[in-house]
Each structure stands twice: as structure tokens, then as C-alpha cells.
């Protein structure tokens, strides 16, 4: 374009600047609507959330982040948490996540039922304090003896309610998780139950590994001097692993060796730029799409699972674990965190088989031809299965410092502003 005078040049320059600013502002507005640039927790503003600290999480386009206000719960329908209670050292982490999702804090939970599954006096004393800490908390003790975990389901007594069955060792879940599960179940009456996208869930661990979210980690085999700092959850603060690339001496990726010492850390493999760690050398390489595979019993694979997740939690890219839905096709699924209608439990309670898990995700759904699906947008972390705990007389996952790291995260990022119940010591 040819300008014939300085006045024309000035006019066109001014118009160009105005148009450019408009384009940039529109792009910024759209970007913040979808991404929040990692500065917020991707919830819609609400005065009910004033006690919630900022949580760094970024969602790429295509992954919905379901807020409580996005869910229309029909009149007369309650949303109830049902926790199988047994271990106070794990519940002290879960407690804050549940309170954060109660109605008074902008969540969907009308109440939380702690269904007693222990006879240990210290745990039961802790439960009394826990129930006293919030008016929406209550406990349920089975009125008669049932086999295995069946008695915990006796607490389901409202056919119209949606129950969130949660294991006591769920040590992390997003604010998005409960709203996503409730919304998915309400909108899909053909689903029998909807599970969260669980980190450390046997077959799902294989799915996550194949999504490329696992990081290279090996155990620290000797105690550091000076001792490692406490109350840290950040992977970036861990020292680098320095040993052989195939793993430290005295450690086997198939979990045939015990944990080296109580409270040991797993250290990240940090290679020079341009080099890539061969994941076939890691415990995660043994994971299989099998509910009874290494993801159930391999304490080393579970450790790598947790330290990899904590890495992504700090990076703010836990969206890498996500997908839309995964149909389990009546295969067994570990029921660590799921949504189910009260009526679907009450219609068949007490269950005709003692294995509640198999009955609720395989037998009963097959009879009704109603699917069991995973909502891949509802992310949660399950700490450990019994085999991961009891390996080598307890020298397995519990001998890592992973649980301490999840507690440190909850202390810093979830619990502020909430009345939490601490324990004096962990046995």
C-alpha cells in the first residue's frame, strides 16, 4: 500500500494497532477461559471456594474439567461419600480431600459415611475424633456379621442417592473427580457404575504406562547423610540417581527383593539432554493389562507409579493421564473410587457372593447388561494393595516415603482453611 502523506501513515498505523490489540485481547480471553494459564485450579469463581488454596493444574483443549456447578443433581437426590474405614494414617490424608468436596466448601457431598472395617482401638478412637470434626461426617457399624467387605455396604440405605465408594487409602483426587463421576452417572442410566481414573490400579497402571507418563526411578539403597529433609513432596528436590542404568545392586524390578530401609526415597534418573531412559529396565515394564498381574502385587512397580505421579503433579501436567471413557467390558476392576446408585446396591444386598468387587463390576452388570466404565477425566490416586503392603513382612511400598509425600502435598495444597484431624504417631 502506498501512503501519500505523513497524515495517512499515522492514521493507518493507529488503526492497525487498535485491530492488533483487539486480536490479542480476544486470544488472551479465550486462552484463559480454557487454560487459566496454570495459575488457577480450573474451577469457576465462587465465594464457596474461598478456603481452597490455588492448585496448579493445566488442562489442554478436549479434556473437560467438571465443576460442581456444572452438575445438575435432581431434587431429592443426595450425593454421599462411603468410605471403607480402617487405617488412620491413610485417612488423615483423605480427610482434607473429602472436606474440600462438602457442600459448604462448594462441593457436591451432602454427607460422608465412614463404614467401620477395623477393630483396632487406636483407629477407632481416631474415627471418633474424625466424625466429631464435621457435622456431615457420620460412622456406620454393620448390624450383623458379613463375609469379607460386604458389611461396609450395609450403610447404603437411600435408594435415590448416588454413593461415592472410596477406599481409605485414596491419597489424592482432583476437585474435578466427584463432579465428573456424578455427572457421568446421572447422564448415563445405562451405566451400572462409573469408576474414577485410578493411579495404582492394576490394569489401569498398564494403560497409564502405555500413555507415556511413567518416569525413570530407582530406590535409594543406603541412608543419606545428613538425613533427607522431611515434609517435601516435590520431585525436583530429590537428588539424581547415580548408579548403574539397569538399577542398583541388590534391587530387582520384579519385586523379588525387599525395600532397602524404612522411609527410603526413590530417585529420578536424570540423563544428559538428548538421551532417553529405556523404560524396559524399570519395574513398570512388567505391568500388564491384567487385574491380577504385577500391578496388584509388585511393590516396586507401585513405587515407580507414585513417584512418577508426584513428578507430574509438580509439573502441573497430570492431564497426561486422562482420556474420555474406558469400557471395562465386564472385566474385573479394583473398586477404589467409584459412583453407584443406592438402588443398584440395595436391590441385591446382601450380595449373593462374598467378593463384593467381583459381584459389583462383573456378575451383576453382566446380568443387567449395563456397562462398567472408567471416567478418564476423574483422576485419583490409590496408595497400595495388600500384596504391595505385605511383601517381605511389610518391607514393601510402606517402606518408601511416598505416603509422607502425599501427606506433605495435602498439608500444603489441600488442608489449609479446613478443620483436619491429625494423629500423633503412625504405627
TrEMBL record:
Keywords recorded for this protein, A-Z: Membrane, Transmembrane, Transmembrane helix
Keyword Transmembrane applies: yes
InterPro entries listed in its UniProt record: Nucleotide-diphossugar_trans
Transmembrane segments: 12-31
Protein known as: Uncharacterized protein
Taxonomic path: Eukaryota, Fungi, Dikarya, Ascomycota, Pezizomycotina
